[in-house]
Amino acid sequence: MKVDIKHYLIIIIFIVFPKIAHANSEIKIGLLAPFSGEFKSIGKSVLNSARIALNKINNDKINILPRDTKGNNFETLLKVEELYAEGVRIFIGPVFNKNLKGLEKFRDAFFLSLTNKIINNPRNVISSGINARSQLNAIKKYKKLNNLESTLILIPKKDYKEEIEQAIKDSKFKAKKVFYYDTEPTKLTKQIEKVTKYQIRKKNLEDEIKRIESSNDDNKEKKLEDLNKKDTLGKIGFDSVVIADFDESLKSVATSLLYTDVSPKRISFISLNQWFDETLFKETASQPISFPSVNKENFDKFKKNYKEFYDIDPNQLSLITYDLVGLIYYLLLKNDFEVDDDIFKKENKFKGKSGIFQIKDQKINHELNFYTVDKSSFIKIF
């Protein structure tokens, strides 16, 4: 089904898959993932989801050829050379950004990498993960809905720092302040104290208590009672905070904010995509906290279907892989099963299990949904 909307195409992937009658040759798609070593569980999940997608397509003209990269660049290049010699020109993978090095020499091949990093990738690589720009675009929409105008962005000094910086520029995200922090626990709280002006606000409270104590105010006792219930006094200086972090580090930053008397009851706590991490349910003091992500209803259905096939839960990259197989199939179908230089260059929009996404400038941008963690549930905002 095809509908023209402002020069874009919205394709419903995996709803209708017509058989290809005019294609005479088999199309081989390389799948580059770690099937051995430390990350073999990721590779297995990616391969499983590709097989589910193939089963849904039900067309024997499509053949996926999995190859074990062992999670390193040397093995990745060996496997690409092997498949390239067999005529493969479309690849799903590699999984990791570090394994993209050297792929530019295969000039007429396309690599739909599962990485969400977009900086300095080879020209024939399409970054397919949930990138920071997509996430910040969703956060912008959330801010507008909630009239949030003064945002603090907290960025850890980690290897993806530059990705966040570039995404801020690309998305034209307006922040009141961007602050970089060291994730070392012994340093973290002091840094958060600094950016939230905690010591100043604490001193403001102490001074105000002393002032009231020495005053002749008729409501002196009541005012002192109210002040003694506070930890600080004065404005924080922002109405929202975006914590560009994950897992335990995210929780540590949230805890440090709470320590400095900055709570989600006073300002909006926002993070990047947490993939519906249910351990956040336990962090009740840091709730509500909101984040952009893929469509949860679709993701839950996908996980249920995956578990029916394999009796285990998939990882997040499985959902992306499933959509990529559908995307490749659709574009091949539109292109008479020919792989040419322009097959991935048209600015089309597609609707997959992850939601609506668009190929543009060597990356896939996702139109993400938004969710809030409140008690023991993920509440959809949009």
Describe what you observe in this structure.
With 382 residues, this protein is of the alpha/beta class. The chain has helices spanning 40-57, 73-85, 132-145, 161-171, 185-195, 198-213, 220-227, 247-259, 296-310, 316-334, and strands at 2-5, 8-12, 27-33, 62-68, 90-92, 110-113, 125-127, 151-156, 177-181, 240-243, 268-271, 289-293, 349-352, 355-360, 363-367, 369-374, 377-380. A 7-stranded mixed sheet has the order 9-8-10-11-12-16-17. It has a 5-stranded mixed sheet with strand order 1-2-13-14-15. It has a 5-stranded parallel sheet with strand order 4-3-5-6-7. The two termini are 25 Å apart.
Order of helices and strands: EEEHEHEEEHEHEHHHEHEEHHEEEEE
CATH topology of the largest domain: Rossmann fold
Radius of gyration: 25 Å
What is the terminal separation in angstroms?
25 Å
Count of discrete alpha- or pi-helical segments spanning 4 or more residues: 10
Largest sheet: 7 strands, mixed
CATH homologous superfamily heading of the largest domain: Response regulator
CATH class of the largest domain: Alpha Beta
On the 0-100 scale, what is the average pLDDT? 92
| Protein structure class | alpha/beta
Helix share, percent = 25-40%
* Low-pLDDT sequence parts: 1-23
Please list the strands of the largest sheet in the order they lie side by side: 9-8-10-11-12-16-17
The number of distinct β-strands equals 17
Tell me which CATH architecture of the largest domain applies here.
3-Layer(aba) Sandwich
